Amino acid sequence: MTATGPNPQAWHDTSVVVTGGAGFLGSVLVAQLQGLGADVRSVSSNQHDLRTADGARAALTGADVVFHLAARVGGIGFNLRNPAILAHDNLLLGAQVFEQARLAEVGRLVAVSSVCAYPETPSLPFDENELWSGYPEPSNAPYGIAKRVLGTLSEAYARQHGFRSCTPILTNLYGPGDHDDPEDSHVIPALIRKFRQAQGDVVIWGTGRPTRDFLYVDDAARALILAAERLAISAEPFAVNIGSGSERSIAEVVALISRLLDFQGEVRWDTERPDGQPRRRLDTSAARELLGFEPQVTLEQGLSLTVAAFEDSPSTR
H or E stretch including 24? Predict the structure, then answer.
């Protein structure tokens, strides 16, 4: 399929609920949907406990389309400290959202999965058919397994109830607006914070050798809208990779951020700390063919925008 954008006519006056709509990806998705003319309601954990039947039902009732982004998630440090919370909360979130969306007669559900659901060492690039071919990287496994189950829920609800859903598998996202807690944030905001606050050398977890498939947050939100338009319109479930289709090493990202911030110190690698999954690169051919999706922002462009946004953020001053 030729690369195209979302169709405004598909969203005009459509009632949409975005769980996790105040979050990093959610806030961008909400803004894009509003720009297309959708009637969007953002749901946060302060409003409704989506882990419960009553909370999920109250949040989803009246929606034509639901984007389920709400999750318990963090970086490697958070994952290592909270494996039970990650498994428990994310499994409950997925199960309740699917069941209560069905009972509330929601027309379409886009339940966002994660690259962390893939086995620790799948073949490269990651292919959707290999999702269950092995155990995830151990530090990510409780979260990854819970996200993997979303695909099973999609298939089961389609088969038994004819419920229309899809489970896009998102790669590592980055961009303005992500939180930058040094222990619990994702790799790019954590790195930006380290460099901005450095008084001398910068120490970074791991070896720098692992690779990741990084996708700018605006591109990810656009892909989810396309998924709702073009995948979640039938009772056939789809799990489609959403990524850049390329891999960049952590060391490369460190070098780019260092240059953007004109860092003059030395980078030292703490090799006693875990690297996480060794390599990540998604096969994005299905997203091109089924969605017409191609990323519009390169890593260099996106990092420049992200660094500029953090420069203006009081949290990193």
Answer: helix 24-35
pLDDT of 183 strictly over 80:
no
Stretch 24-35: mean pLDDT:
97
C-alpha 259/C-alpha 37 separation (Å) is: 40
Q: What pLDDT is attached to residue 316?
A: 46
Is the pLDDT confidence value at 139 over 90? no
Give the Cα separation of 179 and 199 in Å (integer).
21
Distance CA 42, CA 19 (A): 6
* Active centre residues (catalytic): 143
Q: What percent of the chain has pLDDT over 70?
A: 96
Render 245-292 in DSSP notation, one character per residue.
Answer: S--EEHHHHHHHHHHHTT--S-EEEETTS---SS---B--HHIIIII-
Which is the CATH superfamily of the domain at 8-172+214-245+281-296? NAD(P)-binding Rossmann-like Domain (3.40.50.720)
Residue 80, helix vs strand vs coil: helix
In one-letter notation, the amino acid at residue 180 is D
How does residue 1 score in pLDDT terms, banded at 50, 70 and 90? low
- Taking the domains of the chain in order of start, what are their residue ranges? 8-172+214-245+281-296
CA dist., res. 246 & res. 250, Å (int): 13
